[in-house]
Write a structure and sequence with these properties.
This protein is an alpha+beta fold. Among the domains are: 168 residues, Penicillin Amidohydrolase, domain 1; 194 residues, no CATH class. It has 22 helices and 27 strands. The strands form five sheets. Strands 1, 2, 3, 6, 7, 8, 9, 18, 19, 21, 26 and 27 form a twelve-stranded mixed β-sheet that branches. Strand 14 and strand 15 form a beta hairpin. It is globular and about 80 Å long.
Length: 809
Amino acid sequence: MAADALPKRTTVLRRVLRFAAWAALFILLIVLLVTVAGWLMLRSSLPLTGGEVPVAGLTAPVTIERDAQGVPTITAASQVDAQRALGFLHGQERFFQMDLLRRQPAGELAELFGPVAAQSDEKLRLHRFRARALQALEQIPAEQREVLEAYARGVNEGVAHLRARPFEYFVLRSKPRPWTPEDTILVVYAMYLDLQDENGLTDSAYGALRDTVPAALFEFLTSRGSAWDAPIDGSQLPLPSIPGPEVIDLRERELERIEAAQFELDSASDYFLGSNNMAVDASVAHGRAILAGDMHLGLNLPNIWYRASIVINEGDREVRATGVTLPGSPGIIAGSNGKVAWAFTNSYGDWVDLVVLDEREKGVYATADGERETTFHEETISLGDGTTKTMQVEETVWGPVIDTDHRGRRRALRWVAHSTSGANLNLLGMAEAESLEQAMEVTQRVSMPAQNVLIADSSGRIGWTLTGALPRRSSARDGRLPVSSSEVPAAWQWLEPHEAPRLTDPPGGRLWSANARVVGGEHLEIIGDGGYALGARARQLRDGLAAIEGALERDLLAIQLDDRALFLSPWQGVMSNVLAEAPASLLRDQMKEELARWGARASVGSVGYRLVRAFRAFVERDVFEALTAPAKEADPGFRWNRLVQREHPLWLLVSERPEHLVPPGHDSWEAFLLAKADEVAAELTRDGLPLSSRTWGERNTSRIEHPMARSIPLIGSRLSMAPLELPGDWDMPRAQGPDVGASQRMVVSPGRESEGIFHMPGGQSGHPLSPHFDDGHDAWARGEATPFLPQSTMTTLRLVPGDRNGPKQ
């Protein structure tokens, strides 16, 4: 039987193996089919680049010529047709990005991503931006409404002409929802959310500190500037001195444990979403003006901006504007039209108030104009799974009831974005401005998040002004603090356009801004202080401009790429001196060596730069934790890093080293500073890595990816840029973090655009199979000059009047 069993077992084994092989082949075939189907689906959602496409609503054909990097030149017979064509391109190449931009402020992300996004939606529904967008739309002039409607229809035509919906919707098992004119207003609100304080956290922090520490200490910790300030008008602000031991004496305070988990090793500077811009006039640039701008925002794929050149031929008149557009919105946002060039930086003026409700009874509150009652609005959130969630929003005449302060008083948010005057399309007029004065008139009527705008014109002149809806502020109170409702009028009062601050033809022929205080005096009273950035970056721009004569475009690019560590150089001196006077140890000797060769730059290979940055961070943390402890005790939500002008008090303390303000747990400032240096070394070598390997580049490695890069199998890796070690940091012109930095760079002289320079991380297309998905990214990372204007035409697409059944005959 044993002899007979062996062939039987062999036969069975062969059958099993044969079955397993066929099963494996079948599974492989299924995987292959799914992969091929996915690939074909993905290819089907690529945008059109050639041929002739009928588009409903066009009054005349529109030509779209793309260059080797996919940058389009749109040539149309009217503004309305041009913006319809731009909408078509945005819809084809960036629709998912646009969808997120409108859904975030509207609080509609859960409809797409499910209940996981419900909490985020609830927070944003407090602002009722969808309803406000509809109200704002009613106030937009008829000609702008026509442009908005044409743009929206162009977006929907663009999506409709894709052979398959954008790939993200297959993954999410969803379909694109049509674009509407109010969605563009929501995109403007998305920028408000990015650039301003939608929760009043800065006012809240200042209020808690004011209520819990002595007045002299409050003034010291909330300095309005520092020695780094570099406003364009040369104004100076008085800086407070160190309060004496009769005000505060830390020697009487017990050591308080600091939670290391709440603090990041390398967080020496807070990232400011903002920008740089600068301009030189004809006297500095041999007979012409040059403008440079780089907007610092979160870095994602696709990039927030979409490059374009728009040409409108109306009879004998041609209007041509080139620059960046914002998918979801018509027009050129920043760029040049041959006569004027313009660029923005975010203004951290006072655009938000926390209003403490003076309530007679709950829901009945005092205003400067008499008593009012809160109203309630019901918001229904779709959770994407067929269910909904309803919430009540309680509103005052200024905005929603948003929280309760450390004294138990309810507070409402008064924010420019909540006004129907907060958004319009007046920026479209920049394409037709022909002089500095005309451009000033246009920008001062634009409603968007308040921006410093620099303008250069082809006659060689330059100017600065502030754009956005500007509230009329009272100089009688500190706008950084919460205000009682009984002191606030029930309605916003707005500045007239001619009242907006402005400066033209500056002595010296140079202008700059970098999110710090730009002006002083009466202009500063108008703008207010909403938490300006440290002036170090602005000062480095100012000094870089002062050093050049006969400027060329590449000279301004060099300033944009300046990664010298001027701000941290004094701190390098402090750390070096502390270590020089300390008993020797292996790690201390290594730190001294790295500090000696740090290079005074935020360069990728510098260990010393990272050491100095972290040293300052640890010193700052312990100093401010100790000095603001009463505010933290009263308000657990208090964060000392909301006090943005911290360098003046911090540097004064480290320089003068008053005995009564030595941080608890240390016998002297010298002992404290040495302990922080040792702590930095211990943290950097905690994982057993040698100190010599802990470079700035290791920390400052780019993470630029599509929002769904980690969620999509197979192609997820294609949705990310390769990690790169990048030079730069936040307190220098080359502002750079792993996922925050220059979302574009441009340098351009109006009338000489062919000599201009442009950079952008990522490429034009949001599609991973597009050859333009990552065009230009390496040049952006290297700082290599590339052209501002679109180059030679590679493909041509014609949009013609008609519908999807065929063009009109």
